[in-house]
Amino acid sequence: MFRIDFNKLRFLVCDDNPHMRRILRTLLHSFGAREVYEAEDGATALEMYSHYVPDIVITDWAMPIFDGLELAQMIRQPESKGNPYAPIIMLTGHSEKRRVTVARDAGVTEFLAKPISAKGLYQRILNVVANPRPFIKTKTYFGPDRRRNTNSAYMGPERRVGEKHEVLQQPSLLDKARSSI
Amino acid sequence: MAKNSAKDIEVKAFATHHVITQPNPLRKVLRRVEEKDMDDPVRRAEQALASLSGEFKDWMAIEVQRLSTAWTAVQKDGFTKKLRDELFHAAHDIKGDAATFGFPSAAGIAESLCRIIEHAPDLEKVPAELFTHHINAILAIVHENTRLDSLSVSAELSRRLRKVADDYLANVNRDRPEHLEVILAPSIAPVE
């Protein structure tokens, strides 16, 4: 069995509703987290994201200045200096399937519809910690692989095309620095 | 902590996309433990949440006051974008929070109200009673919680208001298939 050492994780919680922030803080602290940073709008959250470099972001959808969807899109910038790969859990009162699709296409890792429960939140965190998905970059998308399962019986058109892949090993920053001297 | 160095990141290039893999940056927080040593973080969190529950009624009162204030403003000045957004946001917060705060029927009614605001083609043409019945029902459930919830009256009220709202929305959106599809789609919210 696996246990998550929550005390080694840093969370950023973004929700404009102070009651929901209090509930999230209570749940995360009781899981064992020590570092929980809070923002009440998307702009503050983005600033805190750059400053504190959280391991996991939990964000509401509807917020002032810019919303959780825009926050996810700003974090998922492949060329950004910050970390574009952090798991993003969207916790929202929106409960329509099309919203899940929109959130997924913005690069959100997990979707959790309110009402919040300790179990639901724990499962989402466990999933992003234990089962991270590869990232996909296309002309229009950068984020976790939106295919969670391989369907061998799939009969439709292939939306991802291409022959054998070519592996591009990213040079380390150290190597880059050495080569530029 | 949760960031690998660039050399750990492997990029596989395909014709239309790149697949980027890296060692799990959060692997260090996962620890294998014996079952006997496994505690129950969910139970601990539920207990912590229960210890907060004494405050839920006050929090709910604040949320419904927001809703009531937003509706009063709409009645005075009409559905301007700002007032429409304030009313929607207040209802949306109740939809998301009320079940956690112990008012699941209020959450259901707030959801119905959100759907009206989101999908009615012209809010000025929505019968005012449709709004007032929803808002008054939420106020009544929160202020008279013990009596109404114990008698399941609030659940029945929620069900009926949702039916009236859905019938109205289905009728006014009969020529707007994209809205109709959303209105008729099932919710993905966890069942209480």
TrEMBL record, chain A:
Highest taxon of source: Bacteria
Domain Response regulatory span(s) in chain numbering: 10-129
CDD domains named among the record's database cross-references: REC_hyHK_CKI1_RcsC-like
SUPFAM superfamilies: CheY-like
GO-annotated biological processes: phosphorelay signal transduction system
Keyword flag Phosphoprotein: yes
Keywords linked to the UniProt accession: Phosphoprotein
Residues carrying 4-aspartylphosphate: D60
Matching InterPro entries: CheY-like_superfamily (IPR011006), Sig_transdc_resp-reg_receiver (IPR001789), ST_Response_Regulator (IPR052048)
Full protein name: Chemotaxis protein CheY
Lineage: Bacteria, Pseudomonadati, Pseudomonadota, Alphaproteobacteria, Hyphomicrobiales
